[in-house]
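Project outcomes to date are best conveyed with an example. Our students and postdoctoral researchers have been running inverse folding experiments weekly, and each run begins with a structure described purely in C-alpha coordinates. The record below, which covers 168 residues, was selected by the lab manager from last quarter's runs and is presented without edits.
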Protein backbone atom coordinates (compact mmCIF):
# COMPACT_ATOMS: atom_id res chain seq x y z
CA UNK A 1 0.00 0.00 0.00
CA UNK A 2 1.16 3.48 -0.86
CA UNK A 3 0.49 6.43 1.42
CA UNK A 4 -1.05 9.62 0.02
CA UNK A 5 -1.59 12.95 1.78
CA UNK A 6 -4.64 15.09 0.92
CA UNK A 7 -3.97 18.42 -0.79
CA UNK A 8 -6.13 20.69 1.37
CA UNK A 9 -6.70 23.45 -1.18
CA UNK A 10 -7.83 20.93 -3.83
CA UNK A 11 -9.84 18.57 -1.60
CA UNK A 12 -13.42 19.84 -1.47
CA UNK A 13 -16.77 19.14 0.16
CA UNK A 14 -20.21 20.20 -1.05
CA UNK A 15 -23.45 19.87 0.90
CA UNK A 16 -26.97 20.78 -0.15
CA UNK A 17 -30.20 20.74 1.85
CA UNK A 18 -33.67 21.64 0.71
CA UNK A 19 -35.52 24.36 2.54
CA UNK A 20 -38.95 25.96 2.44
CA UNK A 21 -37.53 28.91 0.45
CA UNK A 22 -34.52 27.75 -1.57
CA UNK A 23 -31.72 25.18 -1.47
CA UNK A 24 -29.05 25.73 1.17
CA UNK A 25 -25.62 25.06 -0.30
CA UNK A 26 -22.29 24.74 1.46
CA UNK A 27 -18.94 24.42 -0.29
CA UNK A 28 -15.50 24.33 1.21
CA UNK A 29 -11.96 23.23 0.51
CA UNK A 30 -9.52 22.47 3.29
CA UNK A 31 -10.00 18.76 3.91
CA UNK A 32 -6.92 17.10 5.34
CA UNK A 33 -5.91 13.52 5.97
CA UNK A 34 -4.21 10.40 4.68
CA UNK A 35 -5.25 7.83 2.08
CA UNK A 36 -3.71 4.36 1.88
CA UNK A 37 -4.06 2.94 -1.63
CA UNK A 38 -3.01 -0.07 -3.66
CA UNK A 39 -2.14 0.97 -7.21
CA UNK A 40 -0.86 -0.68 -10.35
CA UNK A 41 -3.31 -3.59 -10.56
CA UNK A 42 -5.82 -1.89 -12.83
CA UNK A 43 -8.45 -0.42 -10.48
CA UNK A 44 -6.92 1.35 -7.45
CA UNK A 45 -8.27 0.23 -4.07
CA UNK A 46 -8.15 1.87 -0.65
CA UNK A 47 -6.92 0.48 2.66
CA UNK A 48 -6.53 1.36 6.29
CA UNK A 49 -5.56 3.64 7.93
CA UNK A 50 -7.36 6.15 5.72
CA UNK A 51 -8.92 9.19 7.37
CA UNK A 52 -10.22 12.63 6.38
CA UNK A 53 -10.75 15.67 8.60
CA UNK A 54 -12.39 19.06 8.22
CA UNK A 55 -12.62 21.98 10.62
CA UNK A 56 -16.36 22.40 11.31
CA UNK A 57 -16.08 26.21 11.25
CA UNK A 58 -15.23 26.00 7.52
CA UNK A 59 -18.83 24.97 6.70
CA UNK A 60 -20.30 28.14 5.21
CA UNK A 61 -23.28 28.85 2.96
CA UNK A 62 -22.47 32.48 2.18
CA UNK A 63 -25.62 33.69 4.01
CA UNK A 64 -24.43 35.43 7.20
CA UNK A 65 -27.63 34.78 9.16
CA UNK A 66 -27.76 31.11 8.23
CA UNK A 67 -24.01 30.67 8.80
CA UNK A 68 -24.29 32.15 12.31
CA UNK A 69 -27.17 29.79 13.10
CA UNK A 70 -25.27 26.82 11.65
CA UNK A 71 -22.15 27.62 13.70
CA UNK A 72 -24.26 27.95 16.85
CA UNK A 73 -26.02 24.62 16.23
CA UNK A 74 -22.81 22.82 15.32
CA UNK A 75 -21.16 24.20 18.46
CA UNK A 76 -17.84 24.42 16.65
CA UNK A 77 -15.99 25.40 19.84
CA UNK A 78 -16.90 22.14 21.56
CA UNK A 79 -16.81 20.04 18.37
CA UNK A 80 -14.19 21.68 16.14
CA UNK A 81 -13.42 18.70 13.87
CA UNK A 82 -15.43 16.50 11.53
CA UNK A 83 -13.61 13.19 10.97
CA UNK A 84 -14.21 10.21 8.71
CA UNK A 85 -12.25 7.00 9.19
CA UNK A 86 -12.27 4.11 6.75
CA UNK A 87 -13.17 0.76 8.35
CA UNK A 88 -13.94 -1.42 5.31
CA UNK A 89 -13.69 -1.64 1.53
CA UNK A 90 -15.73 -3.75 -0.93
CA UNK A 91 -16.46 -3.73 -4.65
CA UNK A 92 -18.98 -1.13 -5.74
CA UNK A 93 -22.17 -1.60 -7.72
CA UNK A 94 -20.52 -0.78 -11.05
CA UNK A 95 -17.05 -1.17 -12.58
CA UNK A 96 -14.59 1.39 -11.28
CA UNK A 97 -16.40 1.97 -7.97
CA UNK A 98 -15.75 0.92 -4.38
CA UNK A 99 -18.20 0.68 -1.48
CA UNK A 100 -16.54 2.17 1.59
CA UNK A 101 -17.64 1.66 5.18
CA UNK A 102 -16.46 4.19 7.70
CA UNK A 103 -16.98 5.93 10.98
CA UNK A 104 -18.09 9.56 10.65
CA UNK A 105 -17.68 11.71 13.75
CA UNK A 106 -19.68 14.92 13.52
CA UNK A 107 -20.86 17.13 16.38
CA UNK A 108 -19.31 14.67 18.87
CA UNK A 109 -21.35 11.68 17.66
CA UNK A 110 -19.92 8.80 15.63
CA UNK A 111 -22.07 6.86 13.13
CA UNK A 112 -21.15 4.07 10.74
CA UNK A 113 -21.93 4.97 7.13
CA UNK A 114 -21.43 3.49 3.67
CA UNK A 115 -20.60 5.46 0.54
CA UNK A 116 -19.86 4.47 -3.02
CA UNK A 117 -16.83 6.20 -4.53
CA UNK A 118 -14.73 6.27 -7.64
CA UNK A 119 -10.99 6.07 -7.19
CA UNK A 120 -8.63 6.93 -9.99
CA UNK A 121 -4.95 7.39 -10.42
CA UNK A 122 -4.52 10.74 -12.18
CA UNK A 123 -0.77 10.16 -12.38
CA UNK A 124 1.70 7.89 -10.55
CA UNK A 125 1.75 10.45 -7.72
CA UNK A 126 -1.85 11.81 -7.69
CA UNK A 127 -4.95 9.94 -6.54
CA UNK A 128 -8.54 11.25 -6.86
CA UNK A 129 -11.40 9.88 -4.71
CA UNK A 130 -14.95 11.13 -5.39
CA UNK A 131 -18.29 10.19 -3.90
CA UNK A 132 -21.29 11.27 -1.93
CA UNK A 133 -24.43 10.27 -0.08
CA UNK A 134 -27.31 11.78 1.87
CA UNK A 135 -26.83 12.27 5.60
CA UNK A 136 -29.57 12.93 8.14
CA UNK A 137 -28.17 15.48 10.59
CA UNK A 138 -30.57 14.24 13.29
CA UNK A 139 -28.42 11.08 13.46
CA UNK A 140 -25.71 13.37 14.85
CA UNK A 141 -27.89 15.01 17.49
CA UNK A 142 -28.63 18.11 15.39
CA UNK A 143 -31.95 19.69 14.54
CA UNK A 144 -32.12 21.55 11.23
CA UNK A 145 -32.23 25.35 11.34
CA UNK A 146 -35.59 27.07 11.19
CA UNK A 147 -36.12 30.82 11.24
CA UNK A 148 -39.72 32.08 11.11
CA UNK A 149 -41.09 30.58 7.86
CA UNK A 150 -37.68 29.27 6.79
CA UNK A 151 -37.29 25.54 7.48
CA UNK A 152 -34.40 23.29 6.38
CA UNK A 153 -34.81 19.59 5.62
CA UNK A 154 -32.67 17.40 7.95
CA UNK A 155 -31.47 15.26 5.02
CA UNK A 156 -28.37 16.79 3.47
CA UNK A 157 -26.74 15.55 0.26
CA UNK A 158 -22.96 15.53 0.80
CA UNK A 159 -20.36 15.16 -1.98
CA UNK A 160 -16.59 15.14 -1.66
CA UNK A 161 -13.63 15.22 -4.02
CA UNK A 162 -10.34 14.25 -2.44
CA UNK A 163 -7.06 14.98 -4.20
CA UNK A 164 -4.06 13.24 -2.65
CA UNK A 165 -0.35 13.24 -3.45
CA UNK A 166 1.86 10.21 -2.89
CA UNK A 167 4.27 10.55 0.00
CA UNK A 168 7.91 9.70 -0.74
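After processing, the design step wrote out the following sequence:
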Amino acid sequence: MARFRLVAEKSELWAEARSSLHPVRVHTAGLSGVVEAELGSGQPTLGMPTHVELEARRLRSGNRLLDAEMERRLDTRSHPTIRAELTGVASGSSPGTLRLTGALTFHGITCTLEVEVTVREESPTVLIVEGGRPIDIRDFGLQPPSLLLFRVDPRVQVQARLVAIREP
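The two ends are 13 Å apart (CA to CA). The CA atoms of residues 7 and 164 lie 6 Å apart. The training component of this project remains on track.
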